[in-house]
Amino acid sequence: MYQLIEEVPYEFRLVGEGAANCVFEVLGYPPDPTHSCLQGNLLRVAKAGKKSYGHDEIQAYWESVVRPLFRPDDLVRQQLVKLGGRRIVSRLNAVLENEESTRRVDFRGTRVAEAEYGMLVEDMRQRRPGDLTLEFKPKWLVQSPTAPPTATRCRNCAREVLKKCQRQPPPPSRQQQSTGNAEASQEEHEGETTILCPLNFIACATSADSLATLLAHLLPRCNPPRLGPIPRSVSAASAPASAAAASSSSLSLQHDRLSRWLQTNTLLPRLRAAQLTCSSSSSPSLLFSLPSPPASSSSCRPFPTALSPPSPGRETPHLHRPPSPPASSPSLLAAHAPPPGPPARPGDAGAFAGEAAESLALAMTLRDCTCFIRIPADPSQPVEAKLADLDRKRGDVKLSYWQKTERELIEGGFYFDQRAVEAGVAVDCWLGRLKTLLERGEDGAGGGGGGG
Ligand SMILES: Nc1ncnc2c1ncn2[C@@H]1O[C@H](COP(=O)(O)OP(=O)(O)OP(=O)(O)O)[C@@H](O)[C@H]1O
Ligand SMILES: [Mg+2]
Ligand SMILES: [Zn+2]
User: Fold this and answer.
1) What pTM does this model have?
2) pLDDT for 345-366, tens place per residue?
3) Which of 22, 41, 44, 110, when mutated, tests ligand 1's pocket best, judged by the most ligand atoms within 8 Å of its CB?
4) Is residue 72 in a domain?
């Protein structure tokens, strides 16, 4: 294992940070083989004061649980690195202090933890100046197994509306949640911009509308960003380049390649399949096993119609009993078996609970990862798309937060249209349309591929 050495005059530059980690570029090391593994990699280190697992545990989990779910090229490569002493951490913190004014406001003041290990992660930034790069969180590509069976919003859209609701009007003295939940803080930050239904990542394979929605969301976030207006109703492949974008035919070609990748990639469907697999049948019982919190713990007012069916025959959500699995859309909504792992001993309730908890934690890991895409300026080079930030989640710390969120979504009626209308939020959720598209696809496959 590589170890950073205090005596080496590394030059550290801050590349990015999230709620739990800081990522640095490492320069200034001698060009000898000792340091060759720094080439093409970035240094990822944990922030202080977080309840996350250490990087040694995160790496062991990634190797044994996460990596087997994917193909080698699907994942950003990562390896442990020894930080080699307090002085290295002090130097990293000096960089953060220097960069304070350029950091995201809610991250300012956070520092690198004094830990034994960090991680070297494959650098997914531009290799050459003309490369197009993009990062996004695919989030929940499958409906929550505990959502009401007749929900009209996916879990992500439901949560976006909840957050809007929580923000308006802003509570007088709002404090950060003590869980320091990464999902909450990052999404709140992103919530200032457009809401994207993540089901578009699946729907875009067969829907031009969905593809246009995705491109409108992603192209301005590319590096370099698209300049000029974004066509809403045509795919980038057939869109005329704007005057500014036309200045670079290479950029236009890269946008076409991104569009094609979105339609044909197998990475996000594979992520979705993994999310489905570990949406364990035992997760619903786990999510619903705690007593309801006192009414005052919810920051949203109760939504009366959530408990009275909007359409005849809708099941009333019972928080101590998981909703029965939906009959109509198994591929979208069904709960699934736990992932492979140590079998529970017969009659061992603790082991069963542990397995359910592991399954839920893995599901949360798969819902919080980041996808990096790099489209080289050189059209003969392949598009690279890889998942990162597949960190083990502290289910023991976060379970009550996950339960509280799901309860708020269900009790508040956020899985249904009406709540979004009330909150004045325009949400273009693909839950219903994706179900139709997938059913059509399944029919097509069942019919022997006969037709149009
Ligand atoms: N392999 C990589 N290549 C290029 N940039 C990276 C890489 N890994 C991380 N980054 C940059 O650093 C930022 C933070 O990294 P990371 O996602 O690992 O932190 P985190 O604290 O786990 O984030 P989150 O709050 O989303 O969980 C990323 O958003 C990205 O901009
Ligand atoms: Mg993370
Ligand atoms: Zn949605």
Assistant:
1) 0.80
2) 433 444 435 777 888 899 999 9
3) 44
4) yes
Does 175 reside within a domain?
A: no
Q: Are 106 and 42 in contact (CB under 8 A)?
A: no
* pLDDT(312) > 60: no
Read off the pLDDT band of 139 (50, 70, 90): very high
How far apart (Å, rounded) are the C-alpha atoms in residues 79 and 119?
A: 5
Give the structural domain span for 116. 11-123
Token pair recorded at residue 293: 């919190």
- Determine which residue's CA is closest to atom 28 belonging to ligand 1: 16
Strands (E), 294-442: 370-375, 384-388
d(CA 10, CA 120): 15
Number of domains present in the structure of the chain: 2
In the three-class reduction of DSSP (H, G, I as helix; E, B as strand; rest coil), residue 448 is classed as coil
pLDDT of residue 48: 97
Residue 90 lies in a domain: yes
Whose C-alpha lies nearest to ligand 1, atom 23? 18
Do the beta carbons of residue 218 and residue 134 sit within 8 Å? yes
Do 78 and 214 belong to one domain?
no
Residue 85 pLDDT level (bands cut at 50, 70, 90)? confident
Whether residue 20 has its Cβ less than 6 Å from ligand 1:
yes
Indicate whether 1 belongs to any domain. no
Please tell me if the CB atom of residue 183 comes closer than 6 angstroms to any atom of ligand 1. no
